[in-house]
Design a protein that fits this description.
Elements lengths: L2 E4 L4 E8 L2 E8 H4 L2 H15 L24 E10 L2 E10 L10 E4 H4 L1 H14 L4 H11 L3 H9 L6
Antiparallel strand pairs: 1-2, 2-3, 4-5, 5-6
Helix pairs in contact: 4-5
């Protein structure tokens, strides 16, 4: 862990990322003569430096630049349905997480619920890690009209037009 054998550069690269900052040191074959010696030195460096570094940001809930909705585990998707030769566009807010029983996640149609209510339901499903729609509806009803609902909507970065 934290070590990469870079054959092209003939070195062991020790890399640790904490709080979006990279800590790195290279251990070259020229300096250590063998891969094993370079790897051992790199492991010692990692063991020495780890306690002095800030704690790692957990992967669960980590916001990345690929996230467009504003909430980790919530995305907006468009599906096109065909009926009687006509195409209907259906936007849905989908919640997903590791271990979700539904492989594609659980979603709410913007056509049926509206953009903001569908987003909030997806957010609640993600935060509660549940597919129990009755539980999600109870929570949605509980927070309706409260500041908590507005705080959830403040996180929303995109909307269906």
């Amino acid at each position: 862990m934290h070590l990469t054998r870079n054959k092209q550069e003939k070195c062991i690269m020790a890399r640790i990322r904490r709080q979006n900052k990279l800590y790195q040191k290279n251990f070259t074959l020229k300096q250590y003569r063998t891969w094993k010696a370079a790897e051992t030195a790199a492991q010692k460096w990692v063991k020495k430096i780890l306690p002095s570094l800030p704690p790692a940001i957990p992967i669960k809930g980590r916001m990345t630049k690929r996230n467009t909705s504003g909430v980790v585990g919530v995305r907006l998707i468009e599906s096109v349905r065909k009926k009687n030769g006509k195409q209907y566009h259906d936007w849905r807010w989908i919640a997903f997480w590791t271990g979700c029983p539904y492989s594609g996640g659980i979603g709410w149609s913007v056509n049926k619920y509206g953009d903001e209510p569908a987003f909030v339901r997806a957010y609640l499903a993600r935060m509660l890690s549940t597919i129990d729609r009755a539980r999600i509806e109870r929570e949605f009803t509980r927070i309706r009209g409260l500041n908590k609902l507005q705080k959830i909507l403040d996180r929303k970065l995109i909307e269906v037009v």
